[in-house]
């Protein structure tokens, strides 16, 4: 049973109706990957995220982070000593050239090819590259063509 401090039951229909503002467009708060070799992962993610213009913040506490991505060693207090399993994580790229540069940076910094840059059948204009990070996680960079988000988060006021 979860503690009430961390667990909130689903909202009732009445509570939903009483909400006066919603934010849509960001489903994930954060993703944490617990890795075997923090230095190898730091080198890998610093290289690919630099291509995507996402800064990496390093700490002395056994982890680093970038936006909502946290990467920690198994020894980090946040990891509880447990390695995560294999995951798929996709980053948005500004154009096809950025997808290509992402793929090159990943392969140069310890990544393994899992799908060279190219069009995919998911929808017209879906251009992506896939690599495996040092722990085997499937990391993707994708450019959706002319499809663009209207805003990072849409605010709905009632």
Short descriptors:
158 residues, alpha+beta, 2,3-Dihydroxybiphenyl 1,2-Dioxygenase, domain 1, four-stranded mixed β-sheet, 3 helices, 10 strands, globular, disordered N terminus
Short description:
The chain has helices spanning 13-18, 38-51, 96-108, and strands at 21-24, 31-35, 57-58, 63-66, 69-73, 88-92, 112-119, 127-132, 138-143, 154-157. By secondary structure, it is α+β, with helices and mostly antiparallel strands.
Give the arrangement of secondary structure elements.
Layout: H1 13-18, E1 21-24, E2 31-35, H2 38-51, E3 57-58, E4 63-66, E5 69-73, E6 88-92, H3 96-108, E7 112-119, E8 127-132, E9 138-143, E10 154-157
Parallel strand pairs: 2-5, 6-9
Antiparallel strand pairs: 1-10, 3-4, 4-5, 7-8, 8-9
Give an overview of the whole structure.
By secondary structure, this protein is an alpha+beta fold. It has a domain at 27-74 and 86-146: Roll (2,3-Dihydroxybiphenyl 1,2-Dioxygenase, domain 1), CATH 3.10.180. It has helices at 13-18, 38-51, 96-108; strands at residues 21-24, 31-35, 57-58, 63-66, 69-73, 88-92, 112-119, 127-132, 138-143, 154-157. Strands 2-5-4-3 form a four-stranded mixed β-sheet, covered by helices on one side. A four-stranded mixed β-sheet has the order 6-9-8-7, with helices on one face. A hairpin with a 7-residue loop joins β7 (112-119) and β8. α2 runs antiparallel to α3 (96-108). The longest helix has 14 residues, at 38-51. It is globular, with a radius of gyration of 18 Å.
């Amino acid at each position: 049973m979860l503690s009430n401090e961390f667990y909130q039951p689903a909202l009732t229909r009445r509570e939903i109706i009483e909400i006066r503002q919603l934010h849509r467009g960001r489903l994930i708060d954060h993703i944490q990957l617990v890795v075997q070799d923090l230095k190898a992962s730091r080198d890998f993610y610093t290289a690919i995220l630099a291509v995507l213009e996402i800064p990496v913040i390093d700490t002395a506490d056994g982890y680093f982070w970038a936006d909502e991505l946290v990467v920690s060693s198994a020894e980090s207090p946040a990891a509880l000593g447990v390695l995560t399993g294999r995951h798929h994580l996709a980053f948005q790229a500004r154009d096809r050239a950025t997808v290509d540069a992402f793929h090159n940076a990943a392969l140069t910094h310890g990544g393994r090819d899992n799908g060279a840059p190219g069009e995919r059948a998911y929808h017209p204009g879906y251009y992506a590259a896939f690599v495996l990070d040092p722990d085997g996680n499937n990391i993707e960079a994708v450019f959706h063509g002319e499809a663009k988000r209207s805003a990072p988060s849409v605010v709905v006021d009632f």
